[in-house]
Amino acid sequence: MLWETFSVVRDLSRLHEIASILIKYGWGDFVRVLGIGTMLERAGRILHTSSKHNDIADMDPAIRVRLALEELGPTFVKLGQLMATRVDLLPPAWIVELEKLQSHVPPVPFEVIEADVVALLGKPINEAFAQFDREPFAAASMAQVHRAQLFDGTRVVVKLRRPGIDKKIEADLRILQHFARLVEHDMPEARRYQPVMMVSYFRRSLRRELDLLMEAHNMERFTTNFAGDETVHIPQVYWEYTCTTMIVQEELIGVPGTNLTLVREAGLDLPLLAARGADAVLRMILVHGYFHADPHPGNVIYLPDNRIGMIDFGMVGRLTDYRRQQLVNMLDALAHKDEDAMLQVLMDWTGDGEIDEAKLGYDVSELMFGYDNLELKDVNLGSMLNEITTVIRDNALVLPADLTLLFKALITLEGLGQQLDPEFHMVDHITPFVRDVIAERYQPAALMKRGRKSLKEAFEVVAGLPRDLARLMREARRGRLRIDLDLKRLDQFGQQLDRASNRITMGILTASLVIGSSIVMTVDGWRFMGFIGFLLAFFNSLWVIVSIWRSGR
């Protein structure tokens, strides 16, 4: 039973706290539907299910969710920030509100973590660093950052994970996992959002973000990908001091992307910075398939000579080659106003769920019509992606998580570029990459690779056919062969069956007339009747062809 999973005291205490905060912000119905109050009462804990905060009750629901998530702490703030990337699920007003989420946590006093730092370094701090600032210059929900200096004069930053944060997050993740199962079981209307799968994805993502060693490896990978590129700089990692709970990395000395006034005063070329930043992230996406998933101004440092410095690689996205090809197909479909290609991309993205193809096709047609008279260079990529996600949301479809991260990164990147340069057009920068990817598809090596893959897959299907047929026949002999049919719109199905039967009948009649007329034509004196038969067969054939053509099937 679900109750048994909360037998640990700390989970019960946290569950009570979560439920109380949800009720405080007007989400008592959600708590009741999930049966959390009953569960806590069995454990001897009384939950007050009425909220006395009338001022909160008057707030917009999106604001109440944001405030509740902030009060619930780091795990839920991160969950809200992840949901802010789900433009396919939430309306724009909710996305805007969730993007405001912040963790209101004071930094951990250095005296509390000093012993841990010494243990991680394996030596006293003054033996590892020539200088170490005990006051952090940045603090977030999961880590805080201190400035330091090595003995060779190199300025570095030391990122330290907050002590005990992993245990708190794991407890929250256990509770969230059970919430998701309850929602999926008790709320049929929410099943299409796949809450269990979404929480599983969130758990993997958050655990990676907690692992600072993983972040260091991400930085190393990006450094390798941009080796030889003088326009992009990734901080160097000092591996001798880096582990799961601490990163020591080069400090980038430049102008923070959050302060445009300082950027202008530094004499930097803003349009060039916008172009270089866009090209860097697009190369990550369309060439490397491995991208910074949060390229907002706070994670960008503008360096001398108009170079782009990037920091905070805790959240990265990965695209398979197949996904990259789908993205290119979408952009190519838009460029060529190809509605069928765009429809196919959206259906591929949203998987095997129930799709009303007629409605989706109409919505795609309306979407494409809006860009009918526009050149590709005039398209606002962010607006287009928002319109695509609106189509997906209106058709009750769900995007894969990797694509939601990608869409969010592209929209953020375009906004960053336009802050630097009002004349910035993302599509101007993405078009050359799209052309290169399409050209690469038809290179001999790429064709040969796809051919080998297709041949291998075909061989595996053929090789497995006897085994599958044997299993099928065995199940049939045992009387256990089942065929599940989900017949929807049965009336329409019957009408289509009638039309198909009529066509088959006319086809058989036409064939009979042709054969009979051919025989009659060989008999002297009956050739005229044979000609009449051929004429009837011709008109019957014409009727069948026209009816098929008009049906579109």
UniProtKB/TrEMBL annotation:
Keywords: Membrane, Transmembrane, Transmembrane helix
Domain ABC1 atypical kinase-like, chain residue ranges per copy: 100-345
Keyword Transmembrane recorded: yes
Membrane-crossing residue ranges in chain numbering: 504-522, 528-549
Family to which this protein belongs: Belongs to the protein kinase superfamily. ADCK protein kinase family.
Name this polypeptide is given: ABC1 atypical kinase-like domain-containing protein
Protein source organism: Sulfuriferula nivalis
Name of the encoding gene: aarF
